[in-house]
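Section 3.1: Structural characterization of target chains.
Under the original work plan, the team committed to producing a structural model for every single-chain target entering the pipeline before any wet-lab resources were allocated. The record below documents one such target. The sequence was received from the expression subgroup and is listed exactly as submitted; it comprises 255 residues.
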Amino acid sequence: MLVKLAQITDTHLFPDRDATLRGVATWHSLRAVVDRVRQENPDAIVLSGDLANDGNPDAYDLLYELIAPLGVPIYWAPGNHDRLDVARDRLDRAPFVTTDFAELGSWNLILLDSTFSKARFGEGELSAAALARLEIQLDRDRPTAIALHHHPIPMGIDWVDTIGVTNATDLHALLDRAPNAKLVLFGHTHLEFAGDRDGIRYYGTPSSCTQVVLSEDKTPADSPLRLPGFRLLELRDDGTHASKVVRVADALVRS
């Protein structure tokens, strides 16, 4: 059974549909991204954090209104801009699924909360409890994808790499002992990324609104790398996968 999984991340919604983040109207850009996701007919969606820009309850309601009509299971992990208690209250209704573990065809999907209360600059950390649960969940004979908000692998941008998962070595220690771990999906960076570490593929996905680029000087204003987007994955029974990033030109609605 082939499973098509779409990853949408860093939606940064406000309670006002016309509010902007760095000049981009985040609700309008997400609406365009969701319309494009619909064309791909995914079997499931994963949202990898920063769903609301400031944790406002009405922002989560707007998120639900935009994405729920896709009619497929929607899994999510919180980001540093989210309020977890509010998100759980507003998103604990179908087709959103509040869980840290799911089965997608022949694959497992593990969702990690990488937020912590003592963060100073938006960095992330995996708690001892989260790592203990992960160790148990990895002990299954099925190919596995892990999704979290913060990046656990360097991006090559100095300021971005100060706000990743601070105890990423603890995560890697578990993954190094888990031969069925195949993919790690993350957001937070507003940057497209693909890299490998010890046989595991790591994917960073563009935000549905504003983007970070590796080089401001070398990335022109009309570069596709500045466009909102999402990631589409095909998860195959044999443990292999395919992935592509889809950019959405008409999502870039500015103030």
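The chain is about 20% helix and 25% strand.
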